[in-house]
Fold each of these.
Amino acid sequence: MKRFIKFLLAATFVFLFIRATCGKPKPTVLTATPALKIKDYVFFHNVSITYNGSHYFTINGGNTDYCRLNEYDEAGNFIETYDIELDGRAILYNGNEEELYVKNYGTDLYWFDSEMEDVDIELAGIFENENSSPAISPDGQFIYELVDDEVRVLEFDSGDEIKTFQLSDYYDEHLYNSAIAASDKYLFVWGAKNEVLVYSLEGKYINKIELPWVGYGLSLSYCNGMLWIAEDADASTEGGNGYWYGFKI
């Protein structure tokens, strides 16, 4: 009888151990592989990058009188610069409309006309955080804005808030707590200056990505299948080179 009880206890332990180690789904492991580097001459700060299917576009921030919207080819070669007089925080490309949009230091979303080299307000007062660097969903339907630890999901066409949800463990430091990036499956926010946290589109934590470089807080972006950060020019009115790094995830 004692042998049977010992056997039963041992079998129960093995069952519980196997269930504990094998029964739970393992977290998705994401790695960042450097794929592209773009030298980006700006005044003040490199804040955002996007892609329209053939060209990259970057925007800088820090001063309305020194705002450059730079255009590059698919290999990262410089094509043209546009002076648009906005203190930029994010540049977004909506593939449905084939248009570029800029979020400035403020609460408005601007439409950019490259042929006329002009900007105009598209949606006024839709953002809560003046300093936020929001993201657009790849399908062009939604805008994600990070406000403290809360993600606001906005309908792109109207700017109406659809829902909000909280994030856990994000990096609560000035500028780093104002940027969010989005792919078709994930949301990305800073976990540290060289670390990005990955969430589902509903805000469930998935994993983290350690990066080989420290990125400027507002620069966190996602486009052309890559996660992007910038080594900031921090160049004031003299201008200088910052560097964008794209990572395959």
Amino acid sequence: MISIQLPPEPGSFRTTVCDPGLYALSQLGQNPDDPPRNEQLWKTSHTSITGKTRRSLDYWTRARDELCAGYNRRCVYSCFIIEPVRDVNGKIINTEHSIDHFTPKSLAPSRRAFEWNNLRWCWDIINYKKDDNVIAIDPISLSDNLFELELETNGDWIVVPSRGLNPNLKIQVQDTIDMLGLNSIRAVVIRRNQYADEFMRNPNGYTDPEMDAIQPFIFRELRRQGLT
């Protein structure tokens, strides 16, 4: 995980996501300053602000393309590029991407489900693992020196807390690693191994900007360790 700047809120976000979401909450008698009364709230049919019937309150999905572009197609937790795959008509046919609510929508005031600064671009398997966990480290406010790569004896590259952290911060970083499944989700580890191996085998096959664009966390860690 590396520090990521919060992208600017799109000009259309309020009218396409925030206002319709808040209107739906009011239609369903949900106080936007309170947590949702139950998880089914988000899947409740209601009359939208345009008078149409909708089966869920997932208005945040309307910002999918803006989030993808704002975060440079990169999962904020794993740093892998996760881009929707579309057919010739523009319909999304691959759902490996996901929109994460950094503060889980089941725990936060319900209005936070429709706030730009609470949305993150994410790999779906990591979002599934995160679930309703509140993680301590937000990549939006992250210092670059909290996470490192470490090579295990079995050949896996794993994410670990940086050396020299104070005990409390080290616990927070390790809890974040565990809650996101950065070392326990096998697909994440395999993809990390593949990029690390590729970079080390072909140190002259990429320019530094290319490696940084492909996987900045892995590249910077391998460079720090003198391996590229």
